[in-house]
Structure formats: C-alpha cells, structure tokens
Design goal:
- Two copies of one chain form a homodimer.
- Chain A is an alpha/beta fold.
- Chain A folds into two domains: 144 residues, Rossmann fold (3-Layer(aba) Sandwich), CATH 3.40.50; 79 residues, DNA polymerase, domain 1 (Orthogonal Bundle), CATH 1.10.150.
- In chain A, strands 3-2-1-4-5-6 form a six-stranded parallel β-sheet, with helices on both faces.
- Chain A starts with a strand and ends with a helix.
- At the A-B interface, α2, α3, α4 and α6 of A face α2, α3, α4 and α6 of B.
C-alpha cells in the first residue's frame, strides 16, 4: 500500500545542526572575553526559545538571538565590531554548502520511480528553498513542503492536500518530536534516524521507545531494506 | 470564465510598508546621533538589496540589515544598547497588529462564494502565516500560497498546482513588479491598486502604463464593480 516516502531535510538529508554547533562555539569564544565562564549556551538557548514565538525557526532568527544574548550577557558592553562578526556568522551559515549525509544520494536513487518522494521541512522559506536547490536533489522530489511548524494539524493538511491516505505514507526524519510523533498520531508510519547532534528544543529522544507504527534506523543507507520489508508486509 | 481571485497581502489587504517607514524613521533618529546627516536611508537600502540574496524578504532580514548598516555607518561606534533597540524595533514590527486596508472586509464578503479566493504573498513564512491568522480573514480564503519570490516561474507553478487556467484567474496587488507583470506575462488578468508608500525595490510604477490584461484601481473598494464588468464581458 506504501506509495509515498516523505523526508525531513535538515539532519535527515543533509547536515544542519553541526553548522549551528560550530557557530555557537565561535559565539561562546567571543562572549567569554566579556563574561568569563558565564553559562553562555544556556543563555542563548533561553533567548532562542523565548524568541521562537516571534522569529520561528531558522538562521536569521538564530542570528538575532545571538546578538540579543551577546548584548544582554555582556551587560551592553559588547563592541560593535564583535556584533558585526555575529552577523557575518549568520551570513556564513546561510551560504554554507549543503553537505548531504552519507548514503543519501544512493537511497534516493534506489527509491525513485518506485515511490512518490516528498520533502517536508520546517524553517525559513527562503533558506530552505535555497538549500533544496543547492542540494542537487530537487529534481528527485515530486513535492516539497516547507512549513512553519511540524505538528499534527500541519501534517494533516499536507496529506489532505496531496490526497494521501495515512497507510500509503512513510515519513523519515531525525526528530522524534517533529517527524515521528505528529505523523504516527495520524496513523502514518514513520522511521526515526537519529542525527549525532540534536538541538535541545527538539528533545533528542534517540533512545526513547517509539510509538506504534514507528521504526528506528541507525543510518539512512538502511532505509531501502526497511522499505522492502514494509512493502512485503514482513514488518 | 473568471473563477478565482488571488490577492497579494502586504499593502493590498493590510498595511505593511508604513510599518517599515515608521521603523526606518526611528532608525534614522538613532543613527543621526552618531553620523549627523549622512544619507542613512540610502545606506540602509544598499545593505538590504545586497543582503536580499541571503536573507530574502521580511522583517528578520530587515532587522539584521538595520544592525549591519548601523555598525558600518557609525564606523563601529554604535553602542550595544542602541543595537538592542534595533532588535526591539524588529520584534515590535513582528507583533504589530494587522491593520486591514479600508474596505477589505466588505470586498472579501462581496466576492466570497461567487469566486474561489486565494492569497499569494511573498516573504517570511512564519511572519506571513502569523499575519494571515491575525488578520481575521483566514477562513475566507480557499488557499494561501506563501512564496520566496514572485516571478513568472513561481506563479506558473501555483496556477498549475491548483489546476487554474490562465483566463479563469484575476490577480490583485499593489506591486507592478511582483503582482502584475509576472502574471500578465502568463496571460492572467491583473488589477493594480497602488499603495501610498512603495519600497524602492518594488519600483513604484503607480503611474506607468500597464501591460494588456491589467487594470488599475484607486482603492480596493472598487474591486467588486470591476469584477462584475469583467464577468459580464464589458471590460
């Protein structure tokens, strides 16, 4: 019955969170010159979560949250030239080459033609479109959905718009919170493939028991074999 | 043959550019304390256009461009507490109430039921979704399309996805560049309703001759009468 495989993008098809981690390390280094060993990571995370309601997900919001945190944590002592560096960090992230995870190209090639392939990703529209274009994978997908939040209501709308019955879809992603729980709640099967870094807000859950209808793989290279099992009804 | 009316959102359904203008005046006031009467507006515009490639359209990118301009124009002399104010300006813009243009509610009520109504808007996904939700108009639209850029290719995709033949659609918007030219190039009729402030990048054009298939109205309140004429074949 399986006809459609939908993929999350960031940290499922290509590396993303590592880019945030590397930038955050550079941010920490700048801030430490002002405030020693204050818990800079925790302060940045607080700012990010507080700003989510206004900024949503993505690099531009992250950059604004870095600047806000830098000003607040430094007691407004941070120099303009250091803030300029934070803007440049954001720009470097936006221009960073899209690096596919190991095995992604082979997996897409193996599944293409047999299934309708989709991307369902959240974040900044402009940045996500740019990454899909730069990934070299765009032509392989029958549909790309970029959404502001990945919750049940959003997935329901997407599946309805594409006239996809729940038992025909398999969702693949690295976040239990965004890619697995909201789709299994709709009766859609899902595959969790943990990424080695997970933003705190996505609540790793890489070792939590999965809900019924969800599978876990260590690497995306193992997906075609799982799909074959699902199609043959063995799993 | 007309079955679908598609509306641009910012400065067509609700005020938007005035919010940028008001913020930019506050920005100018802060910067003038550092640099006297340098051409701050021109410098900000240069930064915005240069950053469009990375940031796309929207308030977060505008806020980052304000900060960058402030640092560069002040020769890195701007104080952190003034940069903090720029972030707060951006947040205030994101939370600003959505103010419908005069007549919008009556026009939507008059057309609803008779036509399929759509929104086609560009900019930041998260912010645009939030504005549509806060506008109180969401339930009146059959479809909402938020896109990164309004060019011919994007409109073609939208019309194809919704299976809309060119002669069944009327596009309504305030920007000749984004709402009129790319749709009339596809053989779709359009209505230009100028807004009293236009961002330089959208190239006003409020007095330029329009392409064939395009009409111009002074206010959206006049739209139902024009639609009646188009339907009756009188125009």
């Amino acid at each position: 019955m399986l006809s459609t495989i939908a993929f999350d993008a960031d940290d499922t098809l290509w590396h993303n969170e590592t880019l945030f981690s590397v930038t955050q390390a550079q941010f920490r280094e700048i801030l430490q010159r002002y405030v020693g060993d204050a818990d800079i990571d925790a302060r940045l995370y607080e700012t990010e979560v507080r700003n989510l309601r206004l900024f949503g997900y993505g690099i531009k919001g992250f950059t604004l949250s870095m600047i806000e945190t830098a000003i607040d944590v430094s007691g407004q002592q941070i120099a303009a030239h250091d803030i300029r560096r934070l803007i440049d960090f954001g720009k470097a992230m936006l221009e960073h080459p899209v690096e596919l995870l190991d095995g992604v190209e082979a997996v897409i090639a193996a599944l293409k033609g047999r299934f309708r392939l989709m991307v369902i990703t959240k974040g900044d529209l402009f940045d996500q479109e740019s990454k899909i274009a730069r990934s070299g994978l765009a032509d392989h997908f029958d549909a790309v959905e970029i959404v502001a939040e990945k919750d049940e209501a959003t997935y329901r709308q997407i599946f309805e718009r594409h006239a996809l019955a729940a038992d025909t879809v398999l969702m693949v992603g690295n976040s239990v919170r965004s890619d697995i729980l909201p789709v299994t709640a709709l009766g859609v099967r899902a595959v969790h493939i943990p990424y080695h870094v997970t933003w705190a807000h996505e609540q790793a859950g890489g070792d939590r028991p999965l809900p019924p209808g969800a599978h876990r793989l260590e690497r995306i290279a193992d997906l075609p074999a799982l799909v074959d099992k699902l199609v043959s009804g063995a799993s």
